[in-house]
Amino acid sequence: MTYSLTMILKAIASNQVARFAPSQYVKLTGQTGRGDSTKETPADIAQYFRQCVIDYLDTLGIPPSGRADFLQDKVVLEYGPGDIPGVALLLVAYGARKVYCVDRFPLVSIASKNISVIHELANMLSASERQRFNQCFKNPQAPEVGFNTECIEYLVRPSGVSGLQDEVDIALSRAVLEHVNDLDATFEDMLQAMKPGAISVHQVDLRSHGLHVSNPLDFLAPPTWLWQLMHSHKGVPNRWRADRYEQIIRRLGVELIAFKPTTVFDQSLVTTIRPVLATPFRQVGNEQLTWQGFWLAFRKVNSHA
After folding, report:
1. Does 38 reside within a domain?
2. The three-state (H, E, C) secondary structure of the chain, written as one string
3. Considering the domain boundaries, does residue 127 fall inside one?
4. CATH code of 287's domain
């Protein structure tokens, strides 16, 4: 359940590439923001984005019949949109006015496969939705020309934060918050970007993302200094457990809407790994250590300073 010296040295080397040449790191690793997409068809990817939107609205209790009213003229902030802003495109098509897409890495790519995804997304829409969808592009007939920033605006920031102030009605992410370097700063940025009364909804994936050895939780064993040396610039899991998010939400003073696990690990895995956990995770309760991921949703209260 320990990392070999070879694994550690390779991780440290790739971390330096990500630190000093992030664009090159993206090319070398083929990151899309969705994991390995080599076996996905454009139709699969388009359906994934559609399901993301459905999941967000379901978590917030918005029925399909209320989708248009809920999104009408809303400004949205999406953290970590990946190589194609599929969620953003659908949100604008369904009624949102604008979506800001913020990312640490310059992942966006309008290559041939992603153009096919765009066409698949368009084919899912009604005539009125497709009209709004087309407005997202400088030239709807040639998506590769780029996006209309009045509808979709990319913000690539090394810090991964938007810097927006009281501009958005909805903030959201999927399998992103577990990758951010500074979780507190990201939530502070989120809250500053949100208008009073705005809603935030996130799906968080607490699994190892392939960085465990034998026990799915043994990536929690290396000390923090070693994990930082190996992975601090690569956007891999920051390893924080659900308790950390709970502490941040309590400190921010927001109105909690949802905080529930998606799936859970078997308790025996927690029992096995607990004796060798790194210091930050030793005080996490057994129940929250079993969480493989969770949904989090909250509202910024009007009185928040």
Report:
1. yes
2. CCCCHHHHHHHHHHHHHHHHCHHHHHHHHCCCCCCCCCCCCHHHHHHHHHHHHHHHHHHCCCCHHHHHHHHCCCEEEEECCCCCCHHHHHHHHCCCCEEEEEECCCCCCCCHHHHHHHHHHHHCCCHHHHHHHHCCECCCCCHHHCECCCCEEEEECCCCCCCCCCCEEEEEEECCHHHCCCHHHHHHHHHHHEEEEEEEEEEEECCCCCCCCCCCCHHHCCCHHHHHHHHCCCCCCCCCCHHHHHHHHHHHCCEEEEEEECCECCHHHHHHHHHHCCHHHCCCCHHHHCECEEEEEEECCCCCC
3. yes
4. 3.40.50.150
* Model confidence pLDDT, tens digit, residues 210-230: 999 999 999 999 999 999 999
Is 305 a member of any domain? no
Structural domains of the chain, count:
1
The per-residue pLDDT for range 131-179, each reduced to its tens digit, is: 999 999 999 999 999 999 999 999 999 889 999 999 999 999 999 999 9
Structural domain range at position 97: 5-299
Q: What is the pTM of this model?
A: 0.90
Q: Given this model, what pLDDT does residue 96 score?
A: 98
Could you tell me if residue 82 is inside a domain?
A: yes
